[in-house]
Amino acid sequence: MSVEIKAVDVKALRDRTGAGMMDAKTALQEAGGDAEKAVEILRVKGQAKAAKRGERAAAEGVVQCYIHANHKVGVMVEVDCETDFVARNPEFVEFAREVALHAAGSASVQYVSDEDVPEKARQAELRVFEEQSADKPEHVRPKIAEGKLNAWLDDVVLLRQPHVNQDKHEGKTIEQMRAEISAKTGENVVIRRFAKFRVGEE
Predict the structure, then answer these.
(1) What CATH number matches the domain at 118-156, 1.10.287, 2.60.40, 1.10.286, 1.25.40?
(2) Mean pLDDT of 43-60
C-alpha cells in the first residue's frame, strides 16, 4: 500500500536537500514517508548536493527584474543560492533574468512550485473538473479530473512551464533550467518568489 505524500513534506525535503521536486517526492515514497530515510536515499543517489555540504540554506542570491518593451508589464524575481560568490556568477544572474523574462511573458503563471498552490485553490479546480467529467463513465472520471488538474498546474506553476523563449532554451522547463544552473554551480538554487505588475491591474 503506497503512502500518501503531502506537498508540504515534499517542499520541506526540497528545502533541506536541494533536490528536484520529483526526486524528493520519489524518495519520500520509497522511504514510506520517513523524511530522514528519504534524505539518505537522495544522498545515495547523489541528488542532495546541499545535504552533502552540511545542508546549508540558500540564503544568498539576487533580485532581478524584467520590464517589457511596451512598459506595461514588469516582473521582479528573487533567486537564491548558498554563497555570495555564486550570487555574482554571470550565469546565475542570467538565469535569474531569464526567469523574470519568462514570468513577464507567461499570461497564466501564479505560483513558483506545486507546493505553493493553496490546497483550497487546488480542490476548487478539482471540483470543477469532476463536474465537467460527470457525463463520462464513472470508473474513468477520477482519472479525467486528475489529468485536467495536472494540465491546470502546468498553466499556473512557474517551474512546470517551458521557457517562453523555446528556441533559445530548447524547450526546457524552468525546473530543468534551475536544475542545470544548480549542477553547474554545485549549489542549491531556489526560485524563492516573484511579483508581476501590469498597468491597470488592481
Answers:
(1) 1.10.286
(2) 59
